[in-house]
Amino acid sequence: MNRKSKSSAVIIGASGGIGSALEATLTEEDTFDIVYGFARSRSGGQHIDLLDEASIAAAAKRVAGGPPPKLVIIASGLLHTDKKGPEKTFRDLNPEWLARVYAVNAIGPALVAKHFLPLMPKGERCVFAALSARVGSISDNRLGGWYGYRASKAALNMLLRNLAIEEQRKNSRSIIVGLHPGTVDTALSHPFQGNVPEGKLFDTDRAALQLLDVIEELKVPDSGKLFDHEGKEITF
After folding, report:
1. Are 6 and 67 in contact (CB under 8 A)?
2. GO molecular function of the protein, one example (predicted)?
3. In this structure, are residues 127 and 177 in contact, taking their beta carbons and an 8 Å threshold?
4. Where are the domains of the chain?
5. Residues 6 or more apart from 62 whose CB is under 8 A from it?
């Protein structure tokens, strides 16, 4: 994105592997006047919790006091915890876990959109992106399993499509997309890296650069779609 007027970028989930790399890369590139990084583990003005709408509203209020955001990236996600992994079979389904995964992977990003999209400039190219996943594609699902993660990312894809349609009516140059970063060497993917083909496990810095390159090339007709780290569209 070329700087023509004062603007900012926002990274939600800036304490994670990909989020922190995105924040660092954008800061180093100096394309934006301000790069805001928010995360659940951060305190004060940098705190945000996708399970707490009040904290999302507070983060948006802080951004509203500066240059308008032309780029918002949600880099948060939940696949497993130390005590709970993704479901291998329907016998593993648990309502509390499903609700939590949906809250982080779908509902949280939707609430970020609710509070941050109104801050993005009208009549200018701006990008709202959320990290999704290839496994959230229904047409690409040939293995099953990972019920909550797959379903919550599919829900995220639908929410992004809805947002893209509505926002297009207000700003014909807005772009709202889901991004699949590939398998990145982070805590989220660590338990599953043994199955990753050689050369397909990316470090966080490379992943951030790849995603920003994809964002740079996006056009208005791409809004509402899902793209991988090579810029290739993934069908829903």
Report:
1. yes
2. oxidoreductase activity
3. yes
4. 8-228
5. 36, 45
Strands 201-202 and 174-180: unpaired
Give the ranges where the chain is alpha helix by DSSP (H). Answer: 17-29, 53-64, 95-102, 108-116, 147-168, 204-217
Tokens representing 6 are 């004062």
Pick the CATH number of 8-228 from 3.40.50.2300, 3.40.50.720, 3.40.50.1970, 3.30.70.1450: 3.40.50.720
82 Cβ partners below 8 Å, 6+ apart? Answer: none
Residue type, 107: I
CA–CA dist 7, 161 (Å, integer): 25
> For the whole model, what pTM was predicted?
0.91
Residue 70 DSSP label = E
Smallest Cα–Cα separation from 180: which of 129, 106, 146?
A: 129
Please give the chain's pLDDT, 236 residues, in tens. 555 579 999 999 999 899 999 999 999 999 999 999 999 999 999 999 999 999 999 999 999 999 999 999 999 999 988 788 899 999 999 999 999 999 999 999 999 999 999 999 999 999 999 999 999 999 999 899 999 999 999 999 999 999 999 999 999 999 999 999 987 776 665 555 556 666 666 788 889 999 999 999 999 999 999 999 999 999 99
Q: 3-state class of 24 per DSSP?
A: helix
